[in-house]
Amino acid sequence: MNPISKSSAEPTESANTASVSELQNQLNDLLRQLSPERLRVLTDFAAYLANAESEAATQELLTIPGLLERVQENKTTPKTEYANWRSIRSDV
User: How far apart are CA 11 and CA 15, in angstroms?
Assistant: First the structure.
């Protein structure tokens, strides 16, 4: 068995978008065939996967040194000290 190279395992963004669209269509077709009991099981599993993905993103953010401290510090900034982003970045 040949291992899949990273480049073939991870398609380009445009190919990935097409794949996601195809997968969503396939999933919708399959959902229509499931009993209510199986739909509940699938919903629980999808919630588990979404939670795991969210947790991974949270853990990634927590590895940024000083991020939590900066967020807490920014929460205490009075609104009078806010700056309009357009006055800071006019090129966006």
Answer: 6
**Angle between helix 67-75 and 36-62 (nearest 10):** 90
Query: How many degrees, rounded to 5, is the angle at CA 61 between CA 87 and CA 24?
Result: 95
For the entire predicted model, the pTM comes to: 0.49
Evaluate if residue 35 carries a pLDDT over 70: yes
Write the DSSP assignment of the chain as a string of letters. -PPPPHHHHS--HHHHHHHHHHHHHHHHHHHTTS-HHHHHHHHHHHHHHHHHHHHHHHHHHHTSTTHHHHHHHHHTS-GGG---HHHH-TT-
